[in-house]
Amino acid sequence: MRVGVFGATGQVGAVTRAILAERGFPVEEMRYFASSRSAGRTLSWKNDEITVEDVATADFAGLDVALTSIGAAASKEYAERVAAAGAVVIDNSSAWRMDPRVPLVVAGVNDHAIADRPKGIIANPNCTTMVAMSALKVLDREAGLRRMVVSTYQCVSGAGGAGVDELAEQVAKLGDQASALAFDGSLARDLPAKVFPVPMAFNIAPIAGQLVDDETNEEHKFRNESRKILELPDLKVAVTCVRVGVFTGHSLSINAEFARPVTAERARELIAAAPGVELADIPTPHMAAGADPCYVGRVRADSSGENGIAFFVSGDNLRKGAALNGVEIAELLV
Q1: Catalytic residue among 127, 155, 241, 294, which?
Q2: pLDDT tens per residue across span 180-214
Q3: Is there a contact between 119 and 102 (Cβ–Cβ < 8 Å)?
Q4: 127 counts as catalytic
Q5: Which CATH superfamily is domain 128-155+206-317 in?
Q6: Which run of H or of E encompasses 267?
């Protein structure tokens, strides 16, 4: 395969390059693309050094597959042009996810959807949505998912490298005073906070993303993308997206209601056998960071509704939540 990694110098691009090498993806020719700011740099691919091309001026001819992590605006500008030049585009932005002519795919959940791609584009879901899909799919197949109430715990790297840098700067600035926050929250007032609405060091914000109406775009993404991936257009979803002072790893607390009874024991059996999932007594972002599986635990009956199951899941938002799923989709194409 002749492969192009778009956004090769970014967070997700770096993880994509590493995963392609780790998994032995059949690359005959590798090309890297980025904005003009990064064009001209060299990045390694196995034993070679590849010069990063400027996406604005590059010739896209000759590519078989393009893994794009260049943001929604740039994807809207370039993805169709890359596809028209002959590549299948696997896009990690929000630009195409809800386009009815673009399949939204989680590998191992709805693989069949990649076959119908009239625009030559396959969309990667939001990294928060991704973490929950495999477990929910096997439960839906067994018992018929009808409704879910979800609270997310989204790490700062979900907002890009700037989010990571801001949290690191806040932690460093607090230094030895960090433990004093337990008694005096005013110590955090002067911490730099531009990426997030509040300082995230040792803190949470009950809002992730930007407000669209009474909800944030992150909450809209989770609801709409879940319906499309699980092929349940009428699925009832209540979701609150929360930002937490964690560098890597998104977590979700899920209370799901089904059409048919399912026991906690059976739910654990199904989840344990789901692709890309491992059961864990105490799933955490630390456990998930740098790992391929999504970790599910606290699986139990939810007696507050009819046929309810509750569980907690953690996954690496940069790896499975973005780069790994893109590579797995490319593997399906092969």
Answers
A1: 127
A2: 988 999 889 889 899 999 999 999 999 999 999 99
A3: yes
A4: yes
A5: Dihydrodipicolinate Reductase; domain 2 (3.30.360.10)
A6: helix 264-273
